[in-house]
User: Fold this.
Amino acid sequence: MALTFAPSQDLTGNLRDDLRHATGPAHLRLDTRIMALDVATRSGLVTFLRGSASALQTLAPVLDSVPLPSCTPLRDAITGDLSYLGVQPDPPPAGGLHLDANGALGAYYVIAGSRLGAQVLKRHHAKSTDPSILGADRYLTAPTGLGMWKALLYQLTEMNSKTNGAAVIAGALDAFDVYVRAFEALEPGEKTHDDE
Assistant:
């Protein structure tokens, strides 16, 4: 179930704060799903990488339109990790997400923020005793996170949430939903390439 943002909600004019407030429940929903995965195990790491890859593939056309650091290195890192683990990436999902420039910035907010969250996952991943799992670390250690976040924050401070906020927030909520749906599609009981 996608969460929505009602433009009638109060916007403060500080877009970063408004984004954090308006997307809090969606962020928690995604974090809860991801943190349930044990990325120190093969099955948990593969599920995390496949879900992240699916979401990034869905968001790629939108993210590529944002004049901020590219997300392509992240997609390449996931593909490299899946290949290292001997897992074929899933085909790109049908359809896509269609957002205007402000909505695309909201989607970028989710990706840039995920890089900060990857630091927590990286620590869990490092607890693995399996060298093959430890070797699949390109995505979790990708150096693009801080640069993406700083560039995004600069862009957000240049914008006024009262003017552009509703579209940016709606784009972020859409991106969170893309991620949640990508992970839901991989829930136990679903056949994965790993099972073949």
Summary: Residues 190-196 have pLDDT under 50 and may be disordered.
